[in-house]
Amino acid sequence: MESIQAIKQRFEIIGNDAKLNRALEKAIQVAPTDISVLVTGESGVGKESIPKIIHSLSHRKHGKYIAVNCGAIPEGTIDSELFGHEKGAFTGATQTRSGYFEVADGGTIFLDEVGELPLTTQVRLLRVLENGEFIKVGSSKVQKTNVRIVAATNVNMFEAIKKEKFREDLYYRLSTVEINIPPLRDRKEDIHLLFRKFSSDFALKYKMPTIKLADDAVNLLLKYRWNGNIRQLRNVAEQISVLEQNRTITLETLRQYLPDTGNNLPAIVNNTKSDSDFSSEREILYKVLFDMKSDLNDLKKLTMELMKNGNVSEVTKDNESLIQKIYGNDDEEDATIEDLEVLSIPEKTSNDELPIENMQDKYHFAEEIEEEETLSLQDKELELIKKSLERHQGKRKLAAQELGISERTLYRKIKQYDL
Ligand SMILES: Nc1ncnc2c1ncn2[C@@H]1O[C@H](COP(=O)(O)OP(=O)(O)OP(=O)(O)O)[C@@H](O)[C@H]1O
Ligand SMILES: [Mg+2]
């Protein structure tokens, strides 16, 4: 049995993703049988190489391989294309013609976009699949053929069945083995690899130096949704390779080639994200809430230290980095270590418990902090919006994209905060 690596080389398949490898492995395993295979996956994921692999590794490899795009053939002629017609079967049928199922006898037919087949054709197809029988259009003579079928679809077949656009019995007959090709966004490790491969191919083709992505551009490449999958990635690599003079591609340049960058980012918070790197309003709020929670924990820790120790200057010294984390640097205007001392926690000279009234003061103090923190939720949002607008010289479209919110929402917030 040929190895996955050998198959990848032979069919120019790039990638090392485990799900892709599993799909190729399945294709290799099922190839020597006559089992029908349904290849599923979004548009542009690379479904078309699977039937070729299956055919070339099967005992039919010397027979014909015919790929039919079911979505591209008009409904009126598809039966005749697939099964042939008799002379005079319809206007223009001046001679008897063989269809693909007759021609491919002993070989393989790849039915691409099988979900697009009209229901009447689906009935004919079911019959071929069940007993190898078919009838030419306009004929009454049953013919036999021995064809292996591999079909592919990028539509949700269960939906199509529910809407009665696809026969359930045919679906089960076609999908004896189903091979799913994962979308590019789920093959994170392969994205940059593919981009580099395409870039180097296009550099050769257009006789220009190979483009290279800056680090932040690579991050965007990995986060982007790639609705058009590998086909879209290749187009982007080609466009940039041809159009960009500067061969180091920055984040901003890449953004111009990725439509709707804001909405195409999946809403998953990446641990390494910077403040400016949000995908949605919800993400902003999560970030603010996490920051608040962490601040609150730090404050709790500090308060506990003060309650235990009671010596402000000692606690301040011991917890310098924590205080700086909560209140910022000394040179920042808004909050300093002095602010902490204003909280007037009485210095304690012994290790005794704090008197009850002082403990109550602490609770009072904690409530105030909570209020302040709630207010700072808005401050943080305001700050994020301001920074983003500054970064994009007031260009709302770009700022909205960066913040992952619609321009309309941004406009509303600008009004709300009187920016
Ligand atoms: N792993 C891969 N390595 C290199 N190129 C790939 C790979 N997968 C797909 N491609 C390329 O991406 C393009 C799209 O692939 P393909 O035509 O097979 O998509 P598809 O899944 O059939 O999409 P659709 O459902 O829209 O027909 C092709 O040019 C193909 O050569
Ligand atoms: Mg295709």
Automatic annotation (TrEMBL):
Gene3D superfamilies in UniProt: 1.10.8.60, Homeodomain-like (1.10.10.60), P-loop containing nucleotide triphosphate hydrolases (3.40.50.300)
Q: Which InterPro entries match?
A: AAA+_ATPase, AAA_lid_NorR, Homeodomain-like_sf, HTH_Fis, P-loop_NTPase, Sigma_54_int, Sigma_54_int_dom_ATP-bd_1, Sigma_54_int_dom_ATP-bd_2
The UniProt keywords, alphabetically, are:
ATP-binding, Nucleotide-binding, Transcription, Transcription regulation
CDD domains reported in the protein's UniProt record = AAA (cd00009)
The Sigma-54 factor interaction domain covers 13-242
Q: Which SMART domains match?
A: AAA
Q: PANTHER family attached here?
A: SIGMA L-DEPENDENT TRANSCRIPTIONAL REGULATOR YQIR-RELATED, TRANSCRIPTIONAL REGULATORY PROTEIN
- This protein is called what? Sigma-54 dependent transcriptional regulator
What species was this sequence derived from? Corallibacter vietnamensis
